[in-house]
Amino acid sequence: MYYRVFYLWGMTLEALHALFLQYPRVCTDSRKIVPDSLFFALKGPNFNANKFAADALKKGAAIAIVDETEYAISDQYVLVEDALQSLQDLARFHRRQCKAQVIALTGSNGKTTTKELMYTVLSKKYKTIATEGNLNNHIGVPLTLLRIAADTEMAVVEMGANHLGEIAFLCTLAEPDFGYITNFGKAHLEGFGSEAGVIKGKSELYDYLLGNNRHVFLNADDPIQKEKLGAYIKKFGYSTKDQQYFHIKWLGADPYVRLEAEGLEIRTQLIGQYNFLNAAAAVLLGKYFNVPISQIKTALEAYVPTNNRSQVVTRNGLTILLDAYNANPTSMKAALENLGRQSKKPTIAILGDMFELGEAAAREHQEVAESIDDLGIDEAYLIGVNFNGIQTDHWQFESFEEFREHLDGDPIKMGTVLIKGSRGMALERVVELL
């Protein structure tokens, strides 16, 4: 494989990798320096980390990789043409030197939870690493790949995208051996342009895997996945009804998801039928990689969601379904369907605006509001500019502050409460109000 020699001072990619092996920790934030690490001075629209390279070295970084000549002032600096491209090329090069099998994961909803569940299951048998948090973009994926150690056997790499071509590019970095797409939903419509654009963009993972004769995992109950993969041989799927695939049975969710595999009931600590799909994918992966079903059960039952994702919180007699990390029309409707199934009444939805919907924003927010009535949910509070601009009989608030004032005078006293909205709405703040 040919690499461009773009490093100044005669440093090749191989030489940079040798430097990385000497200092195998990478930092891109000068405020979070790890001692004896490599600091990559990345740039963005509103920042230039070259300016903080000296500070990174003072805080303990061993080497600073910069891409502006004026900042390369000693032998502790490596000057390159583009620090971000250097990081990405180094990650690809390192991935090729490692024996770990790479499992790529993308989709419109459930990526991070599915990644955590896969990691939990695989860790029962293998030395496994996974994407930390949601570092799933053109910077996060390289950072994940550079965490693969000599003894790592499995690497679960989450890939996010809001435009066409992003998943395809991330595949050129991670070069996955296996891949799984959680689903195709109405996410990032502003960037993808339409639902068809979402399907095309996420399917770039399939394009890479099939084009390179790699293995694919699938939810065989998803018609889009079945159609996309067709008669492809290297696929392994699960289904609740098609006996030619690994059978996983849905048992219910009130509030926690229960499922059955190989005659064994698994009681998770996840809420919502949508999380059945995420748990089933982890079971499938464990089965494929010969993790005993008893250990798969132990792993999934021990997993407790965090970071405002599918959490159950009890406060002052209320059962709170806290799923406030992010939202799009597909995940919002799935969460509302789950709320409608809950036995503890009344059922109350506290929803925040969904972002990145472009021209579809008004229509999608209107449809969400209408689905609240269709699902028999007792009461709803809709917060944000988009929700405030639709036609509905439910409570509407243009801002969080307006909602806070209302709740101060008329608190919610009983029932099951769903809290969900896009990340920018920060609706986890509602928990303290309750």
Q: Could you explain the architecture of this structure?
A:
This protein has 434 residues and is of the alpha/beta class. It has three domains: 8-88, Udp-n-acetylmuramoylalanyl-d-glutamate--2,6- Diaminopimelate Ligase, Chain: A, domain 1 (3-Layer(aba) Sandwich), CATH 3.40.1390; 98-302, 3-Layer(aba) Sandwich (UDP-N-acetylmuramoyl-L-alanine:D-glutamate ligase); 311-433, Protein-Tyrosine Phosphatase, Chain A. Helix content is 36%, strand content 22%. The chain is built from 17 helices and 21 strands. The protein has helices spanning 13-22, 53-58, 83-97, 111-122, 140-145, 166-174, 189-192, 195-202, 204-211, 223-229, 274-288, 293-302, 329-340, 361-374, 385-388, 400-409, 429-433, and strands at 26-27, 38-40, 43-44, 47-48, 63-66, 77-79, 101-106, 128-130, 154-158, 178-181, 215-219, 235-239, 246-253, 256-261, 264-271, 311-315, 318-322, 347-352, 379-383, 395-397, 415-420. It has a nine-stranded mixed beta sheet with strand order 8-9-7-10-11-12-13-14-15, sandwiched between helices. Helix 15 (385-388) links the parallel strand 19 (379-383) and strand 20 (395-397). Helix 11 packs antiparallel against helix 12 (293-302) and helix 13 (329-340) runs parallel beside helix 14. It is globular, with a radius of gyration of 23 Å. The N and C termini lie far apart (58 Å).
